[in-house]
Design goal:
Oligomer: single chain
Strand content: under 5%
Number of helices: 25
Largest sheet: 3 strands, antiparallel
Helix content: over 70%
Shape: elongated
Structural class: mainly alpha
Order of helices and strands: HEHHEEHHHHHHHHHHHHHHHHHHHHHH
Distance between the termini: 98 Å
């Protein structure tokens, strides 16, 4: 039996193939430029395909292909849409200046199919820039930038495209921290950006990339590398020294001092950020709010922390800024735990965890899990505390976050688990964490670890007083430097 496909002319097949290449739904004016048919040929095509579901004429001059295409038609169209023919189609699109009339996503896919990776990525960079400027969906921007930089991987880029890759990689890095997504892929992206910046002799970008790498290492438990990258980056920033780069670096400087446990310095640097209060920027890193809030807590400035968290949480909720909401709610819940308002704390921490699940935000889940573990610990329920931390650690490992903590109560909880004989969690063996902390740069955590080491000796009936007092004296010195008077008081009580 004769198939209607056999009656279609070459021009009619080219029309269908162009329609397929351009995403399956296109205005007749565009098709007239790229695969023209006379009025008679178009009417004939519609008659021949009537009832087959192959071609539809929609309102407003839009033509579309049926889904799915009949097998015979799909095979024929694939044969026509060879790389050579698609290249000719793209050439015609640009020659006739109709590229702006096409769906950008469709054109990007078309460019990708013909091997124009640089052009596809440049176009996707433009879309991402426009969407960021218009405060569009950040998840969509993140996905666009991931695709665009991934497309350029392992290509020999010219200086202009290299500069684009570098600047957009830094934007992508920021979004990864904002959304808590893409952390595992980020290392390779920043390494490529660093190599390109070095080749271009771009010292400004080299400095910023070092800071971003330091942040990445901080989140993934590579503390020594984090401290080194942040130190190198900050040295270069200070060499350049202009207002623009100092402003871009403020959050990273705060991380540097936070890692050292010097919270007064953290507060000093974050107070200069215009967007810290009021959430004027949709893509300010949640870590910025977290650093400010925790530093206030560690310094005993509870009223300041509550005021900051409450006002910014309400603003974030009004703007539906989910990544910020889950982090702020977590810190608010943790603050409520510390002042023993357990009922309110549990409400906020559980809600923050649910919000982080809905948003797919690894950071929000991680921090809310730590807060719940602290809540149950403070209430004396060690089993639930252990279960909450165990779940948090497992999810953190899946997201690439290893040994990510800054809070003294993590060490205190860890000691209790160790003392009571709970099974060590992956990458969270108490003795290993204490050893790492004692050899690290964070005077705050070192002060706590020194006190816990002294406490363990006392719990074990250690007779010699001198080593115990040496640890407690060193703990007091460290905690005085950090400014945490609550932890300092705990050490003094042990003396």
């Amino acid at each position: 039996m004769k198939d209607f496909h056999d009656d279609l002319t070459a021009e009619q097949w080219r029309f269908l193939a162009a329609l397929d290449a351009l995403g399956g739904a296109v205005h007749i004016n565009i098709l007239d430029h790229l695969a023209p048919l006379s009025a008679g040929q178009l009417i004939d095509l519609l008659k021949k395909t009537a009832g087959s579901g192959l071609l539809n004429q929609d309102s407003g001059g839009i033509f579309s292909l049926g889904k799915p295409l009949p097998d015979t038609a799909a095979k024929k169209i694939r044969g026509i849409n060879s790389k050579k023919n698609l290249s000719a189609l793209v050439d015609a699109v640009y020659a006739k200046k109709i590229d702006r009339d096409l769906d950008p996503d469709v054109l990007i896919v078309l460019l990708e199919k013909i091997g124009w990776a640089v052009e596809a990525s440049r176009m996707e960079f433009e879309i991402a820039d426009r969407d960021l400027g218009g405060k569009r969906n950040l998840e969509a921007v993140h996905e666009s930038l991931m695709r665009a930089v991934g497309r350029l991987k392992n290509l020999d880029l010219d200086p202009d495209t290299s500069a684009l890759y570098i600047s957009r990689s830094l934007k992508l890095s920021n979004l990864c921290y904002v959304l808590g997504k893409g952390i595992t892929e980020l290392g390779e992206i920043l390494e490529t950006a660093q190599a390109l910046a070095t080749r271009l002799g771009d010292k400004r970008s080299q400095a910023l990339i070092n800071l971003h790498k330091g942040m990445l290492y901080y989140f993934t438990g590579r503390r020594d590398e984090a401290f080194l990258s942040l130190s190198v980056g900050l040295d270069k920033v200070n060499e350049i020294g202009d207002e623009d780069i100092l402003s871009q670096s403020a959050e990273f400087i705060a991380v540097f001092y936070f890692m050292k446990g010097q919270f007064r310095e953290v507060m000093k640097h974050l107070e200069y950020l215009e967007n810290l209060v009021g959430i004027k920027e949709e893509y300010t890193q949640p870590l910025t709010y977290l650093l400010f809030s925790y530093s206030a807590l560690y310094l005993g400035q509870f009223h300041r922390a509550f005021g900051f968290l409450d006002s910014n949480l309400r603003l974030a909720e009004e703007k539906s800024n989910k990544p910020i909401v889950s982090v702020l709610r977590t810190v608010l819940g943790t603050t409520l735990v510390l002042v023993r308002k357990y009922h309110e704390a549990e409400f906020h921490l559980k809600k923050a965890r649910q919000e982080s699940i809905e948003a797919g935000n690894a950071f929000g889940y991680h921090y809310s899990g730590g807060g719940l573990s602290l809540l149950y610990f403070m209430k004396g329920d060690m089993e639930k505390s252990y279960e909450a931390l165990q779940d948090t650690v497992q999810k953190a490992l899946q997201a690439g976050l290893i040994q990510q903590f800054s809070s003294p109560w993590v060490l205190e909880i860890g000691y209790e688990f160790h003392r009571l004989g709970f099974k060590p969690l992956p990458h969270w063996n108490y003795r290993d964490i204490v050893e790492t902390t004692l050899n690290g740069v964070n005077v705050h955590l070192r002060g706590v670890a020194l006190r816990l080491r002294a406490r363990e000796k006392m719990d074990q009936g250690f007779v010699k007083k001198k080593p115990i007092m040496a640890d407690l004296e060193a703990s007091r010195t460290c905690l005085e430097l950090s400014g945490n008077h609550i932890q300092l008081a705990k050490t003094v009580l042990e003396m």
